[in-house]
């Protein structure tokens, strides 16, 4: 019986690499990566949020220079290498839209809906995303890690124009939250509804988009100043203008997502089949 169990385990080990995990990635902020305790705490947290083995994920370190290259001209902030804490995990085998989990005990400002909006603006409409940090962080800089996790999982770059547009959109959302006193999720809903109309009508003119923003804000009882409405319109216009640069990335994303989903299904079928054989043989042995 022990030999039988060992044989099945060996068979699983042989099969697993053939149908290995794809579209599964983790990015670590460089400050976290260089601190063994922090890195281990992030791996433990990510492991608690997935049934997969995090050691199978393709990993990458997000540096301060990478974050600053995208966000510096938008937020006006420059991050030193000692302040890149946030980490992200992306799994493309999840194909039922975008499911974002944010560790709210550590990420204090940006919500799952806000990350989902930023991803949508880069043409990303599916995937399981987990964001955390070993210490308290606003979460704005974490977007760089989330986007890089997608790049690693997909194996293709997201154009800088799209990254900057997503960063600007997220930054504008946080600014509007602070200025209006509205909840982050309510402002995220405003952006999401406006973006849906902008994409459906393929609008790139900020003046036209501003009308949509004002109408939606009024329907949601959100009082925006003219300047705030213009800021939102400008960020959504930039996101829409970046869509033409995303064709190659979106095609590769769709391909990898399909492969990851099918791979997961095949592995599950194999495991179920092996389990049924094991159960059958076990019943024969126990019946003797």
TrEMBL record:
Q: What InterPro entries has UniProt attached to this entry?
A: DUF1002
Q: Which domain of life is it from?
A: Archaea
**One Pfam family from the UniProt entry?**
DUF1002
In its UniProt entry, the species of origin is given as Methanobacterium spitsbergense
The protein's name: DUF1002 domain-containing protein
